[in-house]
Amino acid sequence: MNADLLARIGANPKYRQLVxxxxxxxxxxxxxxxxxxxxxxxxxxxxxxxxxRPIGSSVISTGIPVGLGLIVFTILITGVYVVRxxxxxxxxxREILEEAGA
Length: 102
Fold this sequence. Notes:
mainly alpha
């Protein structure tokens, strides 16, 4: 890309708004992931007995589904980001490029 095109893109208010919204969304998902992950690690560190309890009369402890839930949560928030990036963020990016004449 040439410098003129980059300047036109950078000056577009839609571009600045896109950067802010994408950054805010990414930080929100990051905070959610850290909260869930460190909550799990904190539970392991400070109250192991919660995760060691068997489920009903089985030999499976509550730690197994909680750990699997953490993995599923990670996949879900990744999917949420991909859906929003492929929809809203890509649409706005195309509009910005069209307005800049790219």
